[in-house]
Design a protein that fits this description.
- By secondary structure, the chain is α+β, with helices and mostly antiparallel strands.
- The chain is built from 7 helices and 13 strands.
- Strands 5, 6, 7, 8, 9, 10, 11, 12 and 13 form a 9-stranded mixed β-sheet that branches.
- Helix 1 crosses helix 2.
- The chain starts with a helix and ends with a helix.
- Bound molecules: uracil.
- Uracil binds next to helix 6.
């Protein structure tokens, strides 16, 4: 977004007052004075006017390709977290993960400043679909597909019906796609484990209408497009 537009929307100025404020040297980007009102302000940058932070009117919403070995947490004294992969500006803007992936799970993670949208996306009532690709030990077969569809019984709850599609099967390991409409702790791992298969690799590919961008490297992130954000908001009746 252009700097003058961001100032206009974020600080309630007219476009010409925004340009004037930039000319007068009252605007900083990432702490540095900025004299170009037309400068494109990328995701994660911080903008201030007269020393006061100016928020993005629509907040900040990022898609990350979470790597394995990183915690989904705001901070941790010892381990690296997904927040450590973001620039300082995104952290300061209050961007937070919407839900969790286990330390060893990879793939699509949404981070957003919109707490209400995150809350709705995670609400069990809405049953937003989440799609995973799992590599598991052993040979998957029709009985596993039926067990997922029938609701796998776990110690503390019975999972809702879930779709299991076998992509490769046979020999030592199998590859499958799983679509869940709930998100309990370690759910995919526990469901396979209950059927005698251990998950050796797990990646989330989809969260509601949001699909992992295949061009994002592990540990990479990007801002959602306007279309992606609109689809997410619509999925939780905020559109
Ligand atoms: N299910 C799991 O077991 N782990 C995740 O990170 C997500 C879903």
């Amino acid at each position: 977004m252009r700097l003058d537009k961001l100032l206009a929307q974020g600080a309630g100025l007219s476009r010409s007052d925004a340009k004037k404020a930039v000319r007068e040297g009252r605007v900083r980007v990432d702490g540095q004075p900025e004299s170009d009102a037309g400068r494109k302000i990328g995701e994660g940058r911080t903008v201030s006017l007269d020393g006061q932070a100016v928020g993005r009117p629509d907040g900040l919403h990022l898609m990350m390709n979470k790597p394995a070995g990183v915690l989904t947490a705001a901070r941790d004294a010892r381990a690296r977290t997904v927040m450590d992969l973001l620039p300082e500006g995104a952290r300061r803007a209050g961007c937070m993960p919407a839900g969790r992936l286990d330390k060893d799970t990879e793939g699509l993670l949404l981070l957003t400043t919109d707490g209400e949208m995150a809350h709705r996306l995670l609400s069990p009532k809405r049953g937003i679909a989440k799609e995973y690709r799992a590599r598991v030990t052993g040979t998957l077969g029709k009985c596993d597909v039926a067990a997922f569809m029938g609701g796998v019984r776990l110690k503390d709850f019975t999972a809702k019906p879930a779709a299991l599609t076998i992509l490769e099967s046979g020999g030592q390991t199998s590859l499958a796609r799983v679509v869940l409409h709930e998100g309990k702790n370690r759910q995919v791992r526990r469901m396979f484990s209950a059927l005698g298969h251990e998950v050796t690799a797990l990646e989330r590919l989809r969260f509601g209408p949001l699909t992992l961008d295949a061009g994002l490297p592990k540990g990479g992130w990007r801002e959602l497009t306007a279309e992606e954000l609109a689809a997410l908001r619509e999925a939780v009746s905020l559109g």
